[in-house]
Amino acid sequence: MRAVVQRVAFSEVVVSGKTVGKIGKGLNVLLGVEDKDTEEDAKYLAEKIVNLRVFEDENEKMNLSLLDIKGEMLVISQFTLLGDCRKGRRPNFMAAARPEEASKLYETFISCCRSFGIVVMHGIFQAKMMVRIDNDGPVTLLLDSRKGL
Asked: Class of 2-144 per CATH?
């Protein structure tokens, strides 16, 4: 499971002209589910992300987590994070999980994040989405559950 995590001042996801998720200060998470991923990958990434110390304390040091600041999270499914661009010019998405399995693990990830007591908004799985991200910093991190489990 791969995630692009961005510290944001604001983020919003729009589907067919309608806002389906919007947050203030917190984290925007673009989430890609790989064909070999399990619930353990979702749990690992959820715990890792909500506890990442990427928010500044009173000394302007990144020492606070999403939990510490009582921030919000916006989760967007994005299978293109699994695109392999090493050969040719068109990305290969063979590593991405099939939609049925990806949807279940996407929902598991969201549930795991909510279990920490934070507000978690999300996009619509497999929908064409417009995502507005006011990246704060900018702070952007790449996480991969395969590199941590």
From this structure: alpha beta
